[in-house]
Design the sequence.
């Protein structure tokens, strides 16, 4: 009787052990934070520092137990994701991972959208769209489909053209082959020039935007460097008057007038002119009637007329004159101004 | 490629340049593993093991390079530009800093963060004799310890380690292929890195029980010097372009249970003029009708 009970107890204990070994439940004080897109889990619980201090296999066993618990939690989460069988019924079970949430720095700065080239601007203005061209063209002479350009092109190899017609109205003594070669060279050069111009324009437009004068990546163009050098020179106690210059720098600094509104008269200048100016100012301030500024009055009148004309034209059809028409119109208008 | 003053003359060169230019969705970060002028056996073994873990997204430089990362970063930046690697691990050894590893990352080919770690104990892949998981497995990463949240330097180290060991970003993953796990514990000023191979055992339910087998390189690290990026440079590097954000659809909301709600905006209706006869939903169903009538006798039953 006792033996049976002992056996039963042992069997129960063994079953419990087996259950524990197979269980997937893990006890944690604080929940882990998961980033399933990166297969990442962060455990905030402070690990048992005292136990881990002792070196040797005990520490390894503890670390392994901790790792096992954390891995169990992470894998449980991963297995809860929506999964499907890839490649038919017999394929492996594949889970759809969400987007990674942990923010990591980029490798390179994001690409800047480049400004449109001269042609692109024109095409947008005119409404020209790209025509999709076929890659093969029917060659009548060879009676087969050939490429549009490149190796074995449809029109035959242009460098082996044995006939060059003299166009009507051209000099009969002129070498047509030389002319064709020269024109091709000119076309290629013009294309390259325009490409470089577009690049320079894009580069200039890109560097005009950032506010920080010194870009952290170290790419600075000449204008930025010049501006920064000027600011550095002027930030001395004597405002850059006695700073030594480099051998190739310009001797005279550019005019520091600073625009129309930041120009000041010297302190001890023309005393008579200053006196008359101050008296005139006092006189104008004391007047009962307001002073008439002819320029401003005329500008105001012109603007009023323009607004009326625009309002009147809104009802009628507006003619599309395009950029050229508008450009031609403006000089005519500004000529009306009186000084 | 648009920024090239010299246009590439072959398609191969063009592809090479396109791979390296800044993109919306970036490539997986490559790591370069460099030996310093006085690298010893331990440090060399560490570099070789990390290379084995990070293959094929790593380059291991064979020769010793006499540089000091904390003093002069130009040589590292030159290597980064040539090999298009944004992560690096530099190993060296001297009396003052034995078994030194400098782990770091780049932004736009300039050093962003650098952290110097000392290797106190190292068990390599070769010393642990059991089966290894295949090359190029995406590892699972676990960080244990509150130090990784409390201390700023540890936080950056965590971000660096995730960046280093993350591998390619994949949309889906084979559940049976979750074989490799890297576990980092921060305790007592030390960081224990252990790598285990995951064995999925049967449990009662669908989710398997995990058993771990020590496999790969295990390192005991201690943090030495750091060279972290300034806050604004770090923020600049974190900036994601607008094209990557998923577009939010207006008037659609989800609740906790997964139900999707939509909002419809209607003009004001004159309810007295609604035609309710044509609305099928408002018609009474036969069950409702009989319930309403109540006492009215049903149809005569046909007697057999």
Sequence:
């Amino acid at each position: 009787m006792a033996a049976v009970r002992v056996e039963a107890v042992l069997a129960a204990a063994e079953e419990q052990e087996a259950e524990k070994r197979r269980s997937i439940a893990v006890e944690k004080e604080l929940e882990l934070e998961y980033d399933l897109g990166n297969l990442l889990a962060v455990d905030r619980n402070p690990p048992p520092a005292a136990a881990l201090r002792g070196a040797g296999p005990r520490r390894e066993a503890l670390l392994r137990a901790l790792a096992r618990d954390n891995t169990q939690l992470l894998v449980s989460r991963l297995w809860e994701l929506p999964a499907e069988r890839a490649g038919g019924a017999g394929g492996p079970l594949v889970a759809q991972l969400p987007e990674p949430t942990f923010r990591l720095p980029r490798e390179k700065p994001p690409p800047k959208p480049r400004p449109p080239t001269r042609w692109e601007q024109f095409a947008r203005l005119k409404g020209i769209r790209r025509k999709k061209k076929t890659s093969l063209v029917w060659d009548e002479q060879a009676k087969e489909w050939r490429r549009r350009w490149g190796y074995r092109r449809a029109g035959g190899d242009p460098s082996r053209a044995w006939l060059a017609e003299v166009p009507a109205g051209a000099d009969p003594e002129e070498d047509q082959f030389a002319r064709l070669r020269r024109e091709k060279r000119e076309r290629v050069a013009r294309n390259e020039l325009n490409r470089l111009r577009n690049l320079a324009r894009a580069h200039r437009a890109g560097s005009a935007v950032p506010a920080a004068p010194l870009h952290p990546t170290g790419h600075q163009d000449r204008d930025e460097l010049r501006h920064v050098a000027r600011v550095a020179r002027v930030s001395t106690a004597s405002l850059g008057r006695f700073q030594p210059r480099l051998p190739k720098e310009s001797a005279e600094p550019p005019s520091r007038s600073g625009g129309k509104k930041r120009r000041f008269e010297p302190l001890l200048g023309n005393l008579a002119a200053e006196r008359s100016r101050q008296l005139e100012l006092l006189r104008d301030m004391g007047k009962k009637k307001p002073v008439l500024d002819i320029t401003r009055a005329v500008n105001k009148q012109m603007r009023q007329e323009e607004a009326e004309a625009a309002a009147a034209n809104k009802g009628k059809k507006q003619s599309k004159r395009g950029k050229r028409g508008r450009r031609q119109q403006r000089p005519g208008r500004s000529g009306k101004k009186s000084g | 490629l648009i920024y090239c003053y010299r246009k590439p003359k072959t398609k191969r060169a063009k592809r090479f340049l396109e791979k390296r230019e800044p993109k919306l969705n970036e490539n997986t970060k490559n790591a370069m593993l460099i030996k310093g002028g006085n690298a010893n056996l331990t440090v060399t073994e560490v570099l070789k093991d990390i290379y084995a873990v990070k293959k094929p997204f790593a380059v291991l430089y064979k020769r010793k390079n006499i540089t000091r990362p904390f003093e002069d970063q130009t040589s590292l930046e030159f290597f980064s530009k040539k090999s298009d690697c944004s992560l690096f691990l530099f190993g060296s050894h001297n009396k003052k800093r034995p078994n030194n590893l400098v782990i770091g990352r780049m932004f736009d080919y300039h050093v962003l963060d650098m952290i110097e770690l000392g290797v106190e104990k190292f068990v390599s892949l070769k010393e642990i004799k059991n089966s290894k998981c295949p090359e190029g497995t995406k590892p699972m990463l676990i960080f244990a310890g509150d130090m990784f949240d409390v201390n700023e330097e540890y936080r950056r180290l965590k971000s660096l380690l995730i960046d280093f060991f993350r591998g390619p970003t994949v949309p889906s993953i084979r559940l049976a292929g979750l074989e490799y796990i890297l576990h980092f514990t921060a305790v007592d000023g030390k960081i224990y890195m252990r790598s285990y191979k995951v064995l999925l055992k049967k449990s009662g339910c669908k989710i398997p029980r995990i058993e771990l087998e020590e496999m790969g390189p295990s390192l005991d690290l201690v943090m030495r010097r750091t060279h972290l990026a300034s806050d604004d440079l770090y923020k600049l590097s974190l900036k994601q372009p607008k094209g990557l954000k998923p577009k939010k659809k207006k008037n659609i909301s989800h609740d906790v249970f997964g139900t999707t709600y939509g909002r419809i905006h209607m003009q004001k209706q004159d309810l007295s003029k609604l035609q309710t006869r044509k609305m099928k939903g408002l018609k009474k169903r036969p069950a409702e009708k009989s319930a309403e009538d109540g006492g009215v006798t049903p149809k005569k039953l046909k007697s057999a």
